[in-house]
Structure formats: C-alpha cells, structure tokens
Design goal:
three-stranded antiparallel beta sheet, 10 strands, five-stranded antiparallel beta sheet, single chain, 21% helix, 13% strand, alpha+beta
C-alpha cells in the first residue's frame, strides 16, 4: 500500500474519528443549503454546458477541475470518495478497496448550484454572517485550542488541518462549528475554513438553508481503520491490513460533514460548501504554504 496515499486518507478521516470516540454510529442520506458543494474531475466528453451527474445526484460542471490547481497537484487523488460525492447515501455503497480507488477518480470540481427561494436566501445570509463571526473569533490554532478545539488531522492539501471540539458534534449550529480548518498546526497557523461534523440519524442533518450544502461521510469499504481513538488507515485499507496494524475497521454511518469555505482571502473556486478547496495546495503534514505546490490564498 502506498504510504503517502494512505497517510492522506488517514488524515482525512481523523476528524470523523473523533465522533466515533464520542460514541456515535449508523446510516443516512444527503441534506440542504447555500452556495457550492462537492465533486471530482471527469473524463467525460460532454460539452461544458452539460453537467455530469454523480451517483449521489451531485451535478458537476465539466472542466472545473483542470488538474492544474494547487489542490489537484498536491493531492492527485482525493482524500475520500465521500468528499467528492462518490456513492449514494454517503459512501456506504462503495464496498471494496477497488471501489474506493474508482470513486476517487470520479467527480471532482465545481458543483452546479440550485437556485434558492427568497426565504432560503435570507436564512442563508444570516447563517453565513454567524459563521463568519466564528472565523474572526478563532483566527489562529492558538485561539482554537484555547476554546477547547484539539487537532484531529495534520495539514492535508485541499482540506486543511482539522481541529475538533467534541462537545459541538451533537447538532448543527452555524455559529458553533465542531471543526475549524487551519493552514498548519503551529500556534500561529491561520484559519482557512469551517467544518460541521455532526452526528445525526436517519439521514444527513438539517444544515444551511437551501439545497446546496451536500453533506459527506467516510464509510467506504467498511469505514476507517481505528486503533483506540486514532485513525491509523483510511477507507482504502482492507480489514486484513487494518487488523495487521492493530486496528479495527469502523463504520460511522450516522456521522456527517460539510465544509464552509468562508474565510476572507480563501476563495475556493469549487464553491463555499465544496468537499475540497482547489486553491489549497501545500504539503501533507506541513503547511498550506509549503512547496512544490503552495496554496493560492492571500
């Protein structure tokens, strides 16, 4: 198993692991809301005006993933099929390691947005205002840790370093995200975005107003490989590989996640709610600014 490939997967799943430790668990479907969502590059020959529809009904705009963004160069394979809309009902339809690999090369890019009603737009604007206040309250890792957040993944290209507050995972609240995303793990690392990691049964939780906040999961191929409270391998690992490392494959089917890229200076071209931010390059375990593919953020 390629070690760099595996470490990326491990990092992506670590935020989800925190909920497993908190005792969460079982099945679901997509939810609602605001600006953009998730997806992945396609080899389709469809004209640019025709969106490509994934298994989970996400419509991705052809050509929006070019392979040239810092994210795509730093991480040619997405951290998880769930983040790029692979599979229906989260990622539980992806049953094998081969399915994981196939889904990771699926849809990546900008998701076509659904028009909002006036009431949805008004509600979303209020939620976005509340969420942006959070980014101002916790501008650095030091601020996050002082408020009870702790590191759950190192820095990962496309998605940042995740800092999780377990006390906030029981419900969605735009003003109180359970995860904060940073450009690194040093005390002065800057905030990049927010992540709402939520435990919710019978489908994805109610979230941002409107139908554009596509929630994702990390349940492909039997889920993550956990050893105690640590993710030691990602969804691509087999049960045998996981056991050999002293871990246990674990489904977290009632655990959902959506990102919100709303920090000034971090304009993610694939959308506010995209699973990945194409502008975020950098180095796994390092920072967003590291070469050879540094992030394009101000």
């Amino acid at each position: 198993m390629n070690s760099r490939f595996s470490v990326v997967k491990i990092a992506a799943g670590a935020g989800v692991l925190a909920l497993a430790v908190a005792g969460c668990g079982s099945s679901a479907k997509p939810s609602a809301s605001g600006p953009t969502t998730t997806a992945a590059p396609s080899t389709t020959t469809a004209p640019p005006t025709q969106a490509v529809v994934s298994e989970s009904a996400v419509r991705v705009i052809p050509g929006s993933a070019t392979g040239k963004s810092p994210c795509e160069k730093a991480a040619p394979t997405p951290a998880s099929p769930g983040q790029v809309a692979g599979g229906s009902g989260g990622t539980d339809s992806i049953k094998t390691a081969a399915d994981v690999a196939a889904a990771e090369h699926g849809l990546r890019g900008k998701v076509e947005q659904v028009a909002l009603t006036k009431s949805e737009q008004s509600a979303l604007e209020a939620q976005m205002a509340a969420a942006k206040r959070v980014t101002r309250a916790y501008p650095t890792v030091k601020d996050a840790e002082a408020a009870g957040y702790s590191m759950s993944t190192p820095y990962v290209p496309c998605i940042g370093a995740h800092y999780t507050n377990i006390s906030l995972v029981k419900s969605f609240d735009a003003a109180h995200p359970s995860e904060l995303l940073y450009a690194g793990t040093s005390p002065d690392s800057k905030i990049l975005g927010l992540s709402y990691l939520v435990y919710h049964t019978n489908g994805a939780p109610p979230g941002f107003a409107g139908p554009n906040d596509r929630w994702h999961q990390h349940n492909s191929n039997g889920g993550l490989c956990l050893k105690g409270s640590v993710v030691i391998a990602g969804e691509e690992s087999t049960r045998q590989q996981c056991a050999a490392m002293g871990g246990r494959k674990t489904l977290l089917t009632d655990i959902w996640m959506v990102h919100a890229w709303i920090v000034p200076g971090v304009a993610c071209d694939w959308g506010v709610f995209s699973g990945e931010c194409p502008e975020l390059g950098g180095r796994l375990g390092g920072t967003a600014a590291d070469g050879p593919y540094p992030s394009k953020i101000s």
